[in-house]
Amino acid sequence: MRPLPIRMRVTAAMALAMAVVLAASGWFLYTRLESHLSAALHRELRVRAQDLAALVNQPGASLAHDGSGRLIEKGESYAQLLDTTGTVLDATRPLGHAPLLSAAQLSRARRGPIFAARSSVPGLNEPSRILALPVKRGVLVVGITHQDDVETLASFRDELLIAGPVALLLASLIGYFLAGLSLHPVEAMRRRAAAISADTPGERLPVPPTRDELERLGSTLNEMLGRLEDALQRERDFVADAGHELRTPLALLRTELELALRHGQSAEGLREALRASTREVDRLAQLADDLLLIARSERGSLPLRVETLEAVDLLSAVATRFQWRAEETERTLEFGAPNGLRVKGDRLRLEQALSNLVDNALRHGEGRVRLRAAQANASVELHVEDEGPGFANGFVDLAFERFSRSQRGREGSGAGLGLSIVRLIAEAHGGKAEAANAADGGAHVWLVLPS
From the CB of residue 240, how many other CB atoms can be counted at a distance below 10 Å? Predict the structure, then answer.
């Protein structure tokens, strides 16, 4: 079943609430009117009873001969005088000698005034209310018909039954109109959102200046669109940069193979072509691994096998791996860490991060390369330093961005992913990566990891 639109649901909820309010208001007014009419009737009965009590206490007075009509109105009021046994002593016409009170009512009336209702009395086929009270000669019963009150209540009830649905219909129509007016900004945002695509960058939803939830919703959605555009642009830049980086080794590999096919006359020439091709394949494999690592980290699925590691063992493993390259270039590679300093992390990933830093230092730096670890408050820092020209001016802030390269001082054949991977690994461990130029020259990059 298809759900109702918000406008219809709001209108239905408003109509239901209005129906409850109208029903409660109608019931309250009806009961209040009934109470007021009943109270007025009781007051009139008390007044008539006082006057008739004074009349029946006079010698020779008779209820049947109230000629003035002031106390007894024909067809609307009546009276009856009973003795203590229930015998009718006097009564207005045409009540006759039938007592209006039962034995139980007579017993109660002898002790004090009581009110009672009667559906009819002889000569009056209308509902009435009676008041019985004790007098000197017995019990006086005074009655008044309240057919007018019944008709008044019935008329009022009919008016409520007519006016209530009409008011409910009008309120529902007004609610439908107001709901549509309130949802108009939402519809405007929906239409604009339907027109926004990746081919229309910079488009934003119209935000109504209402200073309410709709304005906050529109502002939040526009902020979300901005973040999505930034993410899409980063993905496009990433794909473009990755394609550019892949094109170079593929072109070199193709050139080497074509030269080997065309001019490879000797076995040594073929072996040299294969060696050059192998280097380019290694570069492609490394680039593919780096791209895969970045993609997995963006999906939040970079797996870590965390264990407690001795910092000196970690640095020693990385230094041993690059010792031969340092010796080839007549560079010094040193490492050191305080005894007992430990760090929790994934050995493979931390070695990968430190290897990227050492590789950059050997490739772009000069002089001694130093690996060291240090305790800093609640963190462990892993440092890699060289004695080269350092980072170019203004490049430190961009050093950890993907495919970023210094324009001078640290140029090379890398893809510009090494430091970005270092940062990803550090953040996956709950830490961070930082870079700076050393005061006495050289590049200084380090990881800050929770101890």
Answer: 11
Is there a common fold for 6-150 and 306-450?
Answer: no
Query: What topology is assigned to 306-450 in CATH?
Result: Heat Shock Protein 90 (3.30.565)
CA 222 to chain centre: 17
Distance CA 319, CA 375 (A): 20
Q: Is the confidence at residue 260, as pLDDT, over 50?
A: yes
What's the pLDDT tens digit per position in 411-429? 445 556 778 888 888 888 8
Tell me yes or no: is domain 6-150 CATH 1.20.120.
no
Q: What amino acid is encoded at 12 in this protein?
A: A
- Give residue 278's Cα distance to chain centre: 56
| Residue corresponding to tokens 């493979």 | 348
CA 289-290-294 angle, 5° bins: 115
pLDDT in tens, 159-218: 999 999 999 999 899 988 888 888 788 888 888 888 887 777 778 888 888 787 878 888
Largest alpha-carbon pair distance within the chain?
Answer: 160
Assigned CATH topology for domain 213-298: Helix Hairpins (1.10.287)
Q: What is the pLDDT of residue 448?
A: 92
Q: Which residues contact 440 (CB under 8 A, 6 or more apart)?
A: none
Q: Average of pLDDT values for 230-256?
A: 70
Q: Which of 166, 184, 176, 190 is nearest to 4 (CA)?
A: 176
Out of 117-126, 190-199, 213-222, 284-293, least confident range: 284-293
* In the chain, where the domains are located: 6-150, 213-298, 306-450
- Provide the phi-psi class of 60: left if phi over 0, else alpha when psi is between -120 and 50, else beta: left
